[in-house]
Write a structure and sequence with these properties.
CATH architecture: Orthogonal Bundle
Number of helices: 4
Number of domains: 1
Helix content: 40-55%
Largest sheet: 2 strands, antiparallel
Order of helices and strands: EEHHHEEH
Number of strands: 4
CATH superfamily: Winged helix-like DNA-binding domain superfamily/Winged helix DNA-binding domain
Shape: elongated
Radius of gyration: 18 Å
Strand order of the largest sheet: 1-2
Strand content: 5-15%
Structural class: mainly alpha
Length: 118
């Protein structure tokens, strides 16, 4: 397509039958930050969001999945901390793999459709 330096960009999220978000990039970042800090509050602060907003997203994900993705860790500090459950870790790993595969596929298709061979 001429001299334009074109790139494909994608956004992938997982939704339920009612089109409500279960998991996407924002929730991925939230789980990663919880894993890093061991705290929902510290994760929310790192991401520039309120604790209430972070907890609301986690709660919605957990309700829609029917299983917890984060659990409390007793004794970690004054109020305790949080960590990912095995289901939360699995969700995070699968989402990373989904993004990798969708990105690879979209780049291949984009190349076939938009990139002229010299």
């Amino acid at each position: 397509m001429g001299d334009a330096n074109l790139h494909v960009r994608i956004k992938v999220w997982v939704a339920d039958d009612e089109k409500r978000v279960i998991f996407g990039v924002g929730r991925m970042r939230l789980l990663e930050a919880i894993e890093k800090h061991g705290s929902i509050l510290q994760a929310a602060e790192e991401l520039g969001m309120s604790y209430r907003s972070a907890w609301g997203r986690l709660k919605a994900t957990q309700e829609r999945l029917g299983q917890p993705v984060v659990e409390k860790v007793p004794g970690a500090g004054r109020r305790g901390g949080s960590r990912l459950t095995p289901a939360g870790k699995d969700l995070l790993e699968k989402y990373h793999e989904l993004i990798r595969r969708v990105t690879d596929a979209s780049e291949t298709i984009f190349g076939q459709l938009f990139v002229e061979e010299e």
